[in-house]
Amino acid sequence: MKSPFALIALALFLGACASIPTPAERLAAADRLAQSRGWQMARIATGPFVLAAWHPVPLPRSERLTVYIEGDGFAWMSASRPSYDPTPRDPVTLKMALAQPGGNVAYLARPCQFTDAEATGCAMAYWTNRRFADEVVAATDRALDVLKQQAGARSLTLVGYSGGGAVAALVAARRRDVDRLVTVAGNLDHQTWTAHHRVTPLTGSLNPADAADALQRVRQWHFVGARDEVIPPAIAAAYARRFTSRQGLTVLTEPGFDHHCCWAEEWPRLWARLGFDSP
């Protein structure tokens, strides 16, 4: 017979699960948000993955395209239990993309997000230990080719939030057309990050800090939240130490911010702080 405490715990767990929007509901909410600004969803086939994207249709022609790359999303139900679908409950990066004051902008989700991970057989490893795997970076790279061609762009600005910052950095290290890399609460050194939290290393994932030599040529701005306990400021500091020269690399600390607050809400101000001559 189960103890009353076990039954209570089970009831609480099931109640918590019931309160989590389904992947379809999360997709619908993100789509409503994007459509409210005239953006439409696209699905980009990249080989092993189909990546979800949102952008104005048609994507305006411009010399520069800024692409926002989503974070890890709803990767974990609890500290020890992965979710069955990583589609974000709160698409912070999509909100940031929609809030950019000017310029030509597109949003790109991560593998298995907004695409019904269960139905498509998307492996759980791609939002846990292999979230920054070579095939993930390669898929993002191919999706950027598609978006860049549609916009007729010559150069790219990549903006990545949380784990999306890692993917943005890894992609930037491979390309010659990314001349501006912006990360927000980015996981720029996952080896330091897993050691800090004393959790299992991300075996099978590439580490942005290991790409420092290739990234030396890319101008970079890395926002960190002083109150961020998920990806603390020490992670960006460890990443920066891997560079032989820090010319062109700027770490910007926001005193009152944590991992979630208040990046999307304050993004127009933060974007202006970067001082780009052209969006």
Automatic annotation (TrEMBL):
SUPFAM superfamilies referenced in this protein's UniProt entry, alphabetically: alpha/beta-Hydrolases (SSF53474)
Organism: Oryzomicrobium terrae
Key words, A-Z: Signal
Record has RNA-binding as a keyword: no
Protein name stated in the entry: Alpha/beta hydrolase
Signal sequence range: 1-18
